[in-house]
């Protein structure tokens, strides 16, 4: 029986049957939890050392710019160096940075530099890991399901990690909690080093600059359209999350309601991916890409009537559920990207996604300075839907040009 047919019948179990993937999955869980704990602990530590809310907020926001620089400058490494070596070194760099933060004499400026260093290598790690999944699980449906599992771990760890970090800080000092982060990254490095096979680099002789690699990905019409299908919706989907606190305050909701509303979209996203990965086969996951992507932002139009907590919870859950289309999009993407460009393409994908989410947050906040929050989110839903429809049209054109019928059959 082929891997694809096994994936179609067994759901996520087909990925967990591969020992290497179990190591990758466990390493991913540890590193994500460690990073969330580090973000909380470092924010609290900097605030205690400086007494400045601005410095505390800056610490949390420092992940964006280094992420962009790292993704741009290091992208070529993902294809020119063996994947296992890249992953282990990135984990060790993060472990060393976290360990240095633990030292009592480390000044605030050094803490911020160390935070930047962790963010700098993050896109290389993410892109290399996502590209290597195709080596571990094959390029078919097992890859799609494995990628979905890693995404759900990231979403779940974000939700649980802040709670775990908060509890941890009730029993440990912030520097001691950062020691826990160093331990999680060391454990992740050990899992990847001893739990995965060494494979040769995909493009040893390719000496193109990072920008040339990006041009190779974005210069191809289909790869560009697929990349934008990951990036563009994120710019608009982030608007309700970025503006949730002022909206909740405006309708008179308390902190409990705010917490529920903040969780609704990621919970819906996890549920949607679980459904698509467990209940649908490969062909069905490809068929739902267009209809679900087209309507994914429409539930946010409920903001136009300034809803209360319950209808807004339902709308955010629906918007999250619609992200089930991402599994089919993953398959189209890995089919479209040549193997020798896979690491750079995946690094570019994760870098752009992180960057544009930050841009989306900033734009939403800026717009809310001039317009009511419910107007801003409604406008984001309308504009985002128009952009997604244009991208879907472009994708259809590339299939007609290239005869890409296989993308609809889920081969």
Which features would summarize this protein structure in a list?
single chain; 411 residues; mainly alpha; Growth Hormone, Chain: A; 2 domains; 21 helices; disordered N terminus; disordered C terminus
- The overall strand count is 0
Mean pLDDT: 85
Distance between the termini: 14 Å
CATH architectural designation of the largest domain: Up-down Bundle
**What does the main sheet amount to?**
none
Strand residue content: under 5%
Please work out how many helical segments DSSP would assign. 21
Overall geometry comes to: globular
CATH level 3 topology of the largest domain:
Growth Hormone, Chain: A
Low-confidence parts: 1-8, 403-411
Q: According to CATH, what is the class of the largest domain?
A: Mainly Alpha
Radius of gyration: 21 Å
Structural class: mainly alpha
Query: How many domains in all?
Result: 2
Overview of the structural elements:
The chain is built from 21 helices and no strands. By secondary structure, it is mainly alpha-helical. Helix 5 (64-73) crosses helix 8 and helix 12 (221-242) packs antiparallel against helix 18.
């Amino acid at each position: 029986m082929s891997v694809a047919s096994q994936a179609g019948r067994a759901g996520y179990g087909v990925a967990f049957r591969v020992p290497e993937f179990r190591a990758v999955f466990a390493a991913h869980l540890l590193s994500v939890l460690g990073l969330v704990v580090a973000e909380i602990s470092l924010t609290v530590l900097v605030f205690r050392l400086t007494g400045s809310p601005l410095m505390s907020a800056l610490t949390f926001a420092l992940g964006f710019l280094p992420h962009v620089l790292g993704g741009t400058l290091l992208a070529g490494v993902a294809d020119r160096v063996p994947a296992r070596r890249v992953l282990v070194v990135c984990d060790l760099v993060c472990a060393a940075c976290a360990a240095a933060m633990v030292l009592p004499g480390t000044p605030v400026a050094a803490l911020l530099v160390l935070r930047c260093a962790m963010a700098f290598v993050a896109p290389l790690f993410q892109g290399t890991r996502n590209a290597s999944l195709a080596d571990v699980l094959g390029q078919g449906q097992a890859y799609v399901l494995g990628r979905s599992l890693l995404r759900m771990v990231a979403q779940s760890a974000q939700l649980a990690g802040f709670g775990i970090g908060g509890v941890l800080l009730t029993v440990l000092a912030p520097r001691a909690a950062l020691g826990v982060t160093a331990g999680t990254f060391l454990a992740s490095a050990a899992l990847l080093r001893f739990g995965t096979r060494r494979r040769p680099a995909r493009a040893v002789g390719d000496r193109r600059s990072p920008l040339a690699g990006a041009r190779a990905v974005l210069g191809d019409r289909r790869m560009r359209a697929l990349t934008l299908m990951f990036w563009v919706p994120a710019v608009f989907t982030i608007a309700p999350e970025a503006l949730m606190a002022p909206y909740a305050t405006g309708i008179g909701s308390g902190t409990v309601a705010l917490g529920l509303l903040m969780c609704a979209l990621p919970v819906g996203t996890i549920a949607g991916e679980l459904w698509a990965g467990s209940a649908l086969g490969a062909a069905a996951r490809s068929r739902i890409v267009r209809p679900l992507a087209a309507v994914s932002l429409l539930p946010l139009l409920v903001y136009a009537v300034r809803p209360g907590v319950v209808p807004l919870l339902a709308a955010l859950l629906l918007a999250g559920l619609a992200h089930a289309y991402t599994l089919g999009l993953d398959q189209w993407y890995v089919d479209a990207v040549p193997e020798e460009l896979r690491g750079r393409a995946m690094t570019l994908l994760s870098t752009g996604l992180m960057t544009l989410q930050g841009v989306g947050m900033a734009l939403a906040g800026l717009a809310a300075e001039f317009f009511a929050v419910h107007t801003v989110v409604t406008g984001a839903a309308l504009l985002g839907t128009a952009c997604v429809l244009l991208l879907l049209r472009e994708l259809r054109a590339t299939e007609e040009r290239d005869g890409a019928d296989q993308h609809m059959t889920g081969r």
